[in-house]
Amino acid sequence: MDDFWELMNHGGGTMYVVAAFSVIALAVGIERAMVQWNFVARARALGEAINKSLLRGSVEDARSVCERSESPMADVFLVGIERYGRTKTDNVVTATHRERLRVQADLRNRLWMLGTIGATAPFVGLFGTVVGIVLGLDKFQADDTVTFGMVSGPVSAALIVTAAGIIVAVLAVIMFNYFSQRGARIGAEMKLQTDEFLELLLEQQPIATKDSRPESKSKKEGSDGDRDKAA
User: Fold this and answer.
1) Closest CA to 66 of 23, 96, 109, 101
2) 3-class DSSP assignment, residue 11
C-alpha cells in the first residue's frame, strides 16, 4: 500500500491527474458500449415489424409497434407517423430525417472526452516527469558528491508518469476511433432504415385530421342547402 501511494505521488502529484483521466476514459467507454450495444439489431427488428404493418396498410399498428419499442429508432419512426397526413409530404420527410440526425448525434455524446484525454494525457505525463526530475535533483546540495545511482532513481521514478500518460492516451484514442467508426456504421444503417420506412409510409392513404372533418361536414351542409334553395 505504501508503494502505491508513493507511485501516485510521483511527478508532484501529477499521477493523480493521469489516474483521473484513466477512470473518465473507462467510464465513457463503458457508457458508449452500453448505448451502442445491439443498436443495429434492435433497429432492424423494429424496422421489419413496422414495414410489415405498413405493407398491410395499417399505420396504427406501426404506431403501436413504435410505442412499445425501446429502440431509439422508434422516435424517428414516430415523428414520421405523427406528421403523416397532417402536413406536406416534404415536411414529413424533413422532420423524420431531422429526428434521425438527432438520434445519430446522441451516439457521439461524450466522445469528445476521449479525444481530449487522448490529446492531453501525454503532455500531462511529460509535465509530471519534468516536475519529478526538478524535485528529485533539488534535494542535492551544491557540495554533495552526486553519483549516477543517486540521479537515476528520481529520474526513473519521474518517467513513470510519462509512461502512464502515454498508456492512458493510447487507450483513449483507441476507444475514440472505435466508437466513432461504429457510430458511423450505425448512422448508415439508420439512413437505410429511415428511407425504407418513408417509402412505405408515403404509399399509405393519408390519415384524416381532426381539422379536416368539420370542414368536410360544413361543405356537405352547404351543398344540401343549395339543393333545397334550388328546389
Assistant:
1) 96
2) coil
Q: What residue type is 82 in one-letter code?
A: E
Q: Which residues contact 193 (CB under 8 A, 6 or more apart)?
A: 43, 44, 47, 73
In a domain, 225, yes or no: no
List helix spans (H) across 37-83.
39-55, 59-68, 73-83
Please give the tally of structural domains in the chain: 1
pTM confidence score: 0.74
108 domain residue, yes or no: yes
Range of the domain at 86: 2-213
Match 509512461 to its residue by C-alpha cell.
Answer: 163
224 part of a folded domain: no
Interval 182-218: pLDDT, tens: 999 999 999 999 999 999 988 876 544 444 444 444 4
Cα 219 to Cα 214: distance, rounded to the nearest angstrom: 9
Whether 106 maps to a domain, the answer reads yes
User: 209 exposed, middle or buried (CB, 10 Å; 0-12, 13-18, 19+)?
Assistant: exposed
